[in-house]
Amino acid sequence: MKTVTMRVDDSIYDMIKLAADGQKRNLSNFIEFATMQYLTSSQFVENDEMAEIKDDKELVNNLMDGLNDFKNGDYTIV
Predict the structure, then answer these.
(1) In whole angstroms, what is the distance from residue 75 CA to residue 19 CA?
(2) Which are the contacts of 25, defined by CB distance < 8 A and separation ≥ 6?
(3) What pLDDT, in 10s, does the model give residues 16-51?
(4) pTM listed for this prediction
């Protein structure tokens, strides 16, 4: 476990504390929970959404073309 120190405005603290109390969690547990919820919901695609993406042949072809361009050195990621 790591200890994290952070500064937040009083109004933000009050909102976090209210949300934590509403879920019967302590403050640090709520912040960890909320962070995990955010990361997993915004960084990953749901199965039905991924199926829709895979079914879009034009999109898949464009993505593969971009990947090939990158592998060929046509672009640099910075």
Answers:
(1) 44
(2) 33
(3) 999 999 999 999 999 999 999 888 776 677 889 889
(4) 0.53
